[in-house]
Each structure stands twice: as structure tokens, then as C-alpha cells.
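Subject: sequence -> C-alpha cells, single chain

Hey, anyone have a minute? Need the predicted structure for the following. Not urgent.
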Amino acid sequence: MKETILAVDPSLRGTGYAVLVRDCGKTRCTDFGVIKNSPKLTVSGCLVAIHEQLGDVIGKFGPEAMAIESVIFVQSFATAITLGSARGAALLAAAQRGLAIYEYAPRRVKQAVVGRGAAQKSQVAFMIRALLGLTVTPPPDAADAMAIGLTHFQSADAAARRRVPLDRV
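Reply:
Had a minute. Here:
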């Protein structure tokens, strides 16, 4: 059974995304990138750009679900609000188009891909290149999105083995 997901690593100025397809047990990345917003763009302008560009990706590739990084602990309330806003723009793009949404903690994603929950971004990118057989190392934010997508597929496999709904894993 073929499954297509959109994986997202949200950030106001650099939202990473990846479209992953799993077919007959093999996973490949069909598209990836980073939605880069200029420091001169207002926060609201960044949110519109994230929402619209992810909407375009959803329209082009038709994923069934979105896998997104969950809320993380941050030292600053301002950073938490900004990150939450970027997540909200991404979540809205998916929800408006009827995608199922799954959230994964950053440490869980790093553990799933690198084997350590405290892995560096460069380690994640290196492993993503190897795991997906890419010819280039993706930008860190896109690599993080791919890692989120791979974590989703691993979680789905584990849930299927245990016969538990994925949203309960």
C-alpha cells in the first residue's frame, strides 16, 4: 500500500518540509525544501507564507497525513509563542485540506533516526542522507523534516505490529 506524508519542522524564518512516500516497505523522498522568510518580513507575513507554501505542497503531492514536530521546551516565552505561531500556520494548512496530523517530540525524532535523543543537526542530516539514499545532504531544516517523516513511518509500523491505533502510540 502506497502512503504519502508531508513532514514539517516548523520555524518562523526557516520551516523545513519533506514529502515522503512509502510503497511496498520502501521509503523515498519526492520533494523537500525550506520555506525561508526574510528577517524584514513581519511575523504575520511569515505565517501567511508558511500557510500558503505548505498548502501548495499539499495540493501538488496529495499527502494523506502530516507529521510535525511537537511543542518543545524553550527558555523564552517569546520564542515559544513564535514557534507556536509557525506550527499553527502549518497545522492550519493541513487541517483545511483534511490531512490527518501526527506530532512527534524532537528527542523521539533524533532517537529514531540517529539513535541518540541529543543528536546534533549535522548528525541528523548525515543519517537522513544515508537512510534515504540521497545524493546530496539536505539543508538542516529539511533534514529534520525528513527525520520527522521517518519517525512517523516507524511509529506506524510499531502500532501495526501491536495492533494499536497510531494516535495512541
